[in-house]
Amino acid sequence: MKNKTILRILLMAFVAMVGLTACSDDEPKDSVKEIRMQVSAETGFMYAWPDDKMENPIECMLVMSEDFPGETLTLGFNQIEGFTYERGHEYYLLVKRTIFANPPADASDRTYSLVRILEDRVVAEPEVPVDKEIKSEEDIEYNDLCPFDKYSISKEFVVDKDGNIYYGDGSSLPSYKAARIWLENVLDYEDPNWIKFQSIPYQATYSYVFSPFTDEIRLVRNESSGPMFKNVVPEDEFTNITQSMNSGEEVCYTLILANVYKKGLQKVAFIIKKQ
User: Fold this and answer.
1) Which residues have C-beta within 8 Å of that of residue 119, sequence separation ≥ 6?
2) What is the pTM of this model?
3) What is the pLDDT of residues 200-210, one digit of tens each?
4) Which letter, b or e, does each residue of 109-126 get, where b requires 16 or more Cβ atoms within 10 Å of its Cβ?
């Protein structure tokens, strides 16, 4: 009789444990995803949660991420775990973003931790070449060990008559004024010059723009992780594409990426196709 009682107790405990496990499986789970994030060289101001009167501004980072395209957000200097911000640097990061299923009432619903720094660029003021006028590709002096294959961009953009911009795979970009032509660092880690190619002379600070609509070669600032779409494709050219080109027609833009000294690094090209 005693053994039966013990077995009954053990069975009830087992059933209760299984029930708890089943319940826990139904609970909402945190969402974890790797996303790209751009951190500006300029800083901004934010306010602590208890400071509802906004009396004590706190200096912070200004960031843009894939979660909120086209929007500039504020983050505290310590809000990306494993990342140390340095003023005057623009960063392009890969971070792990965790959104809590049950966030605390007095804190953010998400956290970020650094996976790796994709690019770290020291900011330089944009300049026009002063040594000589650039009239052709032959006038551009290349840096030592260049051209190389460090950077890559999307090969095709699609625009419609309303001015909406998409990647070739159909995913949408921000508006014309907020869209960026992302420069992705694709240099092979096995490259014997990999460390050297991460230094300032091999960072794409500028782009020489070769447009299909003009013989003029323009120099634009890449800012952080790539030039703004509107700077590479001026408004008059964008209007020509959206309003004058027929569906299926395409044009090709070429960029010669250049370092802070305006010396060439690499040539890249991309296509804009009318939807």
Assistant:
1) 90, 91, 92, 183, 185, 203, 224, 225
2) 0.57
3) 788 888 999 99
4) eebbebeebbbbbebbee
